[in-house]
């Protein structure tokens, strides 16, 4: 899984201001600790199977596809996969097509390469990185969106979210799923027992962590077995501390990873990663903890969990839902604190990309660009849509609703996940590149210079010098 002030991806630059970033962070902070309920997981009017056209109550027109079959590949597992299948089921009802979900593995580009080499590519793939979309286009795998999908995208998405799905000026991706990756979730009872308040700055976060530690609970849970969680930590610190211009430059490898700004960010991270007993299980324990477990162990065990806080995006709610904790009451959230002048707002997402151009594949892309599709999964929780036509009232609780409203209020004033913009060999491959080097740095946070040198060597190789 890959979720703060502008989008800048290959060839696309959107202007931003510190004021806009601050506005987005401020909007996010509002009412994040409230919680409401909505148990209606229905998908609305589905119409007769194979009916085609625009169903009653629907916002999108789909063709009749009786007898057509297609497949969708994604790395999603567990509840996320289960919920997405409900979206596919509704597409089947409205068109008469049969859709098969194909479980993929990271890195998905390698997975797709093997499928294509074997002559059995999926019709559509959900790609979690703009860099992966570009690779799919460069390899000749990806097909441009047709007129209907492009029209649906244009009606429902801001220019920035459209632009990150473009390569060479052509639209290839529909960013169906977004993520706000500038959040820290916490066990409310642990904070209450420690007398801790939600921090707004990095120094306050360190003080809060010490209070939690002094109360007898390890402050942080870190899912270090998944290297992408560590890149997300770095990106929030770096964006806030170094600023948006440096962030853009590092994302495009216009400055080196040996730059002093990277040294400063890694040194700042070491204030938590290198602090004895601040990370559950220590470095070795964190490196054996996958992201889902990093969340669940924060919200199990009552007021004596393995950790009091866990950093990650809005999608952590899926995993919180696997515990007995209630979001907004037992599990609360605050924006990633400001390390520099402005709190970071980092986003990520997953885009639908067509690999086999057909009427059915184009229809599915059109469906995924519609508010009808997004609303189905939004109701189920643990999901955030960049589709501005989705009524935020469909989200199942006030926490998720406010996160969604903050994302939409930011418009194009956010920055996309840096590692997701990089070539996959550097920013998106387990055991390699940035993921591996930051895992090594978690193990030895004193070796800042060594981490910088390795990051630069791997980046230079991936970016081509």
TrEMBL record:
SUPFAM superfamilies tied to this protein: Periplasmic binding protein-like II
Pfam families per UniProt: SBP_bac_1
Keywords recorded for this protein, A-Z: Signal, Transport
Domain of life, source organism: Bacteria
Keyword Plastid in annotation: no
Keyword Glycoprotein recorded: no
InterPro entries: Bact_solute-bd_prot1, SBP
Region Disordered, residue ranges: 39-63
Signal peptide: 1-36
Family, as annotated: Belongs to the bacterial solute-binding protein 1 family.
PANTHER family named among the record's database cross-references: ARABINOSE-BINDING PROTEIN-RELATED, OSMOPROTECTIVE COMPOUNDS-BINDING PROTEIN GGTB
Protein's UniProt name: ABC transporter substrate-binding protein
């Amino acid at each position: 899984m890959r979720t703060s002030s502008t989008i800048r991806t290959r060839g696309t630059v959107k202007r931003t201001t510190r004021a806009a970033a601050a506005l987005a962070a401020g909007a996010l902070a509002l009412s994040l600790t409230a919680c409401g309920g909505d148990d209606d997981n229905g998908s609305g009017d589905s119409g007769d199977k194979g009916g085609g056209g625009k169903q009653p109550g629907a916002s999108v027109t789909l063709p009749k596809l009786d007898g057509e079959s297609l497949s969708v590949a994604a790395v999603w597992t567990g509840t996320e996969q289960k919920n997405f299948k409900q979206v596919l089921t509704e597409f089947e009802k409205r068109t008469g097509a049969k859709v098969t979900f194909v479980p993929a593995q990271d890195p998905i580009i390698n997975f797709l390469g093997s499928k294509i080499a074997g002559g059995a590519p999926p019709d559509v793939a959900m790609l979690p990185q703009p860099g992966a979309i570009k690779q799919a286009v460069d390899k000749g795998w990806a097909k441009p969106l047709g007129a209907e999908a492009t029209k649906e995208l244009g009606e429902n998405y801001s220019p920035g979210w459209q632009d990150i799905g473009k390569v060479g000026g052509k639209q290839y991706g529909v960013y169906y799923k977004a993520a706000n990756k500038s959040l820290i979730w916490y066990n409310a009872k642990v904070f209450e027992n420690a007398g801790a308040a939600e921090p707004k700055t990095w120094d306050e976060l360190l003080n809060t962590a010490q209070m939690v530690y002094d109360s007898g609970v390890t402050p942080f849970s870190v899912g270090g077995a998944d290297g992408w969680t560590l890149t997300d930590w770095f990106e929030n610190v770096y964006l806030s501390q170094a600023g948006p211009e440096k962030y853009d430059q590092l994302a495009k490898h216009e400055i080196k990873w040996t730059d002093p700004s990277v040294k400063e960010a890694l040194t700042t991270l070491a204030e938590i990663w290198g602090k004895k007993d601040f990370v559950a299980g220590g470095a070795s324990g964190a490196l054996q903890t996958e992201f889902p477990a990093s969340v669940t162990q924060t919200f199990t065990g009552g007021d004596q969990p393995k950790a009091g806080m866990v950093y990650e995006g809005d999608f952590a709610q899926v995993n919180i839902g696997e515990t007995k904790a209630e979001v907004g009451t037992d599990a609360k959230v605050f924006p990633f604190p400001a390390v520099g002048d402005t709190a970071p707002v980092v986003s990520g997402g997953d885009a639908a990309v067509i690999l086999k151009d057909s009427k059915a594949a184009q229809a599915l892309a059109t469906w995924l660009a519609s508010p009808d599709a997004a609303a189905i999964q939004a109701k189920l929780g643990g999901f955030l849509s960049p589709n501005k036509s989705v009524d935020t009232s469909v989200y199942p609780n006030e926490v998720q609703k406010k996160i969604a409203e903050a994302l939409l209020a930011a418009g194009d004033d956010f920055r996309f996940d840096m590692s997701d913009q990089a070539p996959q060999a550097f920013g998106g491959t387990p055991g390699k590149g940035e993921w591996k080097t930051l895992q090594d740095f978690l193990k030895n946070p004193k070796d800042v210079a060594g981490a910088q040198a390795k990051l630069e060597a791997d980046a230079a190789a991936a970016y081509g010098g």
